[in-house]
Amino acid sequence: MKPATLTIRVWDLPTRIFHWLVAVLVVFSFATGKIGGSWLEWHMRSGYAILTLVLFRLAWGIAGSETSRFASFLRGPAAFIRYAGDLAGKRHRAMVGHNPIGGWMVLFMLLLLLAQASSGLFADDEIATQGPLAVKVSNALVAKMTAFHYYNGWTLIGAVSLHVIAIAAYWMAWRDNRVAPMWTGRREMDGTGAQPAVRATWIAAAILALSGGLVYWLVVVYPKG
Domain limits at 127? Predict the structure, then answer.
């Protein structure tokens, strides 16, 4: 007999909006950074938006809905190895939120995004574009940050590509659609699945406003001080 299934809410609206906005902004930032010229102004604006969103997501990972919290998906080495063994043995275990491997990948990409957006604040192309905090540090540090911003950008693209490949692999191997739940917020689970607790959206809005205020201070207010 086929086990009973139920549709549960896996991802809250703030997490889903964050995910798709960051996906679009990363592609936009990469493209405008490579095009250069007058597009670099938009590249910087996109970077500020990414920094705001990443600060929000880090805070939401502590105060957000159950499946969005780091405590719910950052599991220890034993869980990581056990899940990797399941994948190697072609065994698939559906999980409500991130699996033990995907959870650490999420944190890794968040840290890459934070490092990329933060280093861009100090970068200088020595032509026409300079990060707002470049004037606050030494030329040597600006040079290091500029180089880091370049190479870390490629690391980030590699991580994003790996993420996309993993999503495609889940679909091809197990017909596990990882995209639709991040769009609709819901997915089908067996009868043992529990409905995760969801935080109020106004809390996310307040955190986002605080994150945006901090980035505005870093980009506009502090450099003039």
Answer: 5-224
